[in-house]
Design brief:
Elements: E1 2-3, E2 6-7, H1 18-31, E3 32-33, H2 41-44, E4 51-55, H3 61-69, E5 74-79, H4 82-95, E6 100-104, H5 107-114, E7 120-126, H6 144-153, E8 154-164, H7 167-178, E9 183-188, H8 198-205, E10 211-217
Parallel strand pairs: 3-6, 4-5, 4-7, 5-6, 7-8
Antiparallel strand pairs: 1-2, 8-10, 9-10
Helix pairs in contact: 1-4, 3-4
Length: 219
C-alpha cells in the first residue's frame, strides 16, 4: 500500500516453492483477478449472502478455513506476496472452494480503483504489520485515510474485523477509530469463527496479547 510514497507492508522474499508455483500455473486464471480491472461483485458472486474483502491474507490458511466454513459468502483476498498467493490457490484446490478470488497488489490502490462505492459487506484485516518502531508508526495501515476509504466502499450496514498481536498497535487502532465519526464499535472477544493460524500461534508463544476488534458503519 502506498500513502504518499509510504508503504504499509514489507517486501519480503518472493521465492516460491515448487508446489506454490504449480498451483499458480494451474489455478490463477480461474481464481485470480487482474489488478486494475473493475470488479462487478454481483456478477462475480451472484448468490453470495455477503462479499468480504480480506486485506493481507499471508499464507491464506485462515482465508481458506473461513471460506470453507461459510460457503454462502464470497471472499476477495488481497496480498502482495506471491508465495502466499500460490499457497492459497493450493488450499482452494485442496478444499474445492468456489467462493474465493485473489488479487495481487497494493490494497489501497486496489480498493480505490477496482471496487464500486458501497459495494462491500465487510473487511477482514488480520495481523497487519505492526511497524513497532516509533519512526515507522506512520506506515501502519489503520489511519484516518484508511477509515475514510473503507467507509466509502462499504454498504450501509458494513463492517470491518481486525486482529493484532501487538498491544501498541491495538491501542493505536482504538485511538484512530475513536477519533472517527464514521464507525461505531470496539474491542470484542475472540470470534469463534476466526481460525487460529501459525502466525498467531507464534505470537501466543511469545506471550503476545491478541486483540480483536469489530467496527460497523454508523447509521
Amino acid at each position: 500500500m502506498e500513502r504518499q510514497g509510504i508503504k504499509s507492508f514489507r517486501l519480503r522474499g518472493k521465492r516460491m516453492t515448487r508446489a506454490q508455483n504449480a498451483a499458480l500455473v494451474r489455478s490463477w486464471d480461474q481464481f485470480g483477478i487482474i489488478a486494475g480491472t473493475s470488479i462487478d461483485i454481483d456478477h462475480l458472486f451472484p448468490s453470495a449472502k455477503e462479499v468480504i474483502v480480506e486485506i493481507g491474507f499471508g499464507m491464506g490458511d485462515a482465508t481458506a478455513e473461513i471460506a470453507k466454513a461459510h460457503p454462502d459468502n464470497g471472499y476477495i483476498a488481497i496480498e502482495v506476496h506471491p508465495p502466499g498467493i500460490g499457497k492459497l490457490l493450493s488450499l482452494i484446490e485442496e478444499h474445492e472452494l468456489s467462493n474465493v478470488r485473489i488479487i495481487e497488489g497494493d490494497a489501497i490502490e486496489i480498493l480505490e480503483t477496482m471496487f464500486a462505492d458501497h459495494s462491500i459487506n465487510g473487511f477482514h484485516l488480520f495481523f497487519p504489520d505492526p511497524w513497532p518502531k516509533m519512526k515507522h508508526n506512520k506506515r501502519r495501515i489503520v489511519n484516518a485515510e484508511f477509515l475514510a476509504l473503507i467507509h466509502l466502499k462499504l454498504k450501509a450496514s458494513g463492517y470491518i474485523n481486525i486482529a493484532t498481536d501487538w498491544v501498541a498497535y491495538a491501542e493505536s487502532i482504538q485511538a484512530v477509530f475513536a477519533g472517527s465519526t464514521l464507525f461505531t464499535g470496539g474491542e470484542v472477544s475472540r470470534p469463534t469463527w476466526r481460525p487460529y493460524t501459525k502466525f498467531e500461534g507464534k505470537g501466543l508463544d511469545k506471550d503476545h496479547r491478541i486483540s480483536d476488534f469489530h467496527y460497523q458503519v454508523k447509521d
